[in-house]
Every structure is written in structure tokens, then in C-alpha cells.
Known about the structure:
With 187 residues, the chain is mainly β. The protein has a single domain, classed as Jelly Rolls (Sandwich). The chain contains three helices and 13 strands; from the N terminus they run E-E-E-E-H-E-E-E-E-E-E-E-E-E-H-H. It has helices at residues 35-40, 167-170, 175-180; strands spanning 4-11, 14-19, 22-24, 27-29, 49-55, 60-66, 73-79, 81-88, 99-105, 111-114, 118-124, 129-135, 144-146. The strands form three sheets. Strands 1-2-10-7-12-5 form a six-stranded antiparallel β-sheet, with no helix packed on it. The chain has a five-stranded antiparallel β-sheet with strand order 9-8-11-6-13, with no helix packed on it. Strand 1 and strand 2 (14-19) form a beta hairpin. The mean pLDDT is 92.
Amino acid sequence: xxxxxxxxxxxxxxxxxxxxxxxxxxxxxxxxxxxxxxxxxxxxxxxxxxxxxxxxxxxxxxxxxxxxxxxxxxxxxxxxxxxxxxxxxxxxxxxxxxxxxxxxxxxxxxxxxxxxxxxxxxxxxxxxxxxxxxxxxxxxxxxxxxxxxxxxxxxxxxxxxxxxxxxxxxxxxxxxxxxxxxxxxxx
Length: 187
């Protein structure tokens, strides 16, 4: 019996995963990862780094990516609620600059898989929102990238005009800056 179900592919590789939740009078229990189930669903099974962030209400983190080595992320909210976002930043992709967002909470326990080649981010919808994510590659500070959270060429609907941002996210490059920085394409 699989403990996870895929709601479907949201956007060219991005997948919404719903775990089975076992509830009784004491509370609930749910697995968040199981190698054989993930293999069966076509999800990665090799994660090399786990991250955990806590944010105030209206913090936006993102849009972050790492291309060297390529990093995919399995994201979930373990406290509070957030909008999880993934943007396709693969120039050769048919869905280049398309985005998807998922309302994830500690109660619905949704997980979002966004493979390498996607910029990811989230908006915390309440104080002390915690987002945890498993990564398929170790963080490489020399290859850490960010695209402006409100770049009009992407047009993510964050539901907020003036979020709380880190210095890194305030200084993030535009989509055009990202495109201009890519190596020339060879045929």
C-alpha cells in the first residue's frame, strides 16, 4: 500500500504530493518520505541536505535556484501556512517562466516537488511559519542564484504588494539578467 498520492503534475516536473495521515484520539501520524513509495511515483529518492526555515507573516523568500550542482527541492510546511511557488527557469522548456503555487499548511501536509531548473520560493501567511525542504544537492554558495520575487515577466501572484524581504531577495536579478547570464546555447 502506497502511503503517498500524487495529485498530478502541476507544471512540467513539479508535483503535488499528498501523504496519508493516520488520525486517532491522540492526534495524528504521517510519513513524510518513504523510498519505495517515492520510486513508484517517479520522485527522487536521494536527498543530501535538509533545510528548515521559520518566517514571520508576509515574509517572501525567493525566487531561489542552484544550477551547479543542479538542485531539486521537496518542500513542505510543518508549522503555519504558506504559498509555495515554483517557476520554470529552463530556457529550452516549453513552460519557460510559467509558475505554479500551492497553498500548503501544517494541517493539509501537502508537499511540493520542484526539480532542478526551477526557481522556488514561498510566502509565509502567518507568524512562525516553518518550511522544511529536502534537497537533491548540497548548497553551493558560489552558484546560489535568485530572481526578483515580483519580476513582471513571471508575474507570480503573491497576494501582497510589500512583503518582508532579505537583502539578498531585495537585490535579486531580473529574469532578463538571469537570461543574459546564461552560457551561449550550442546546437
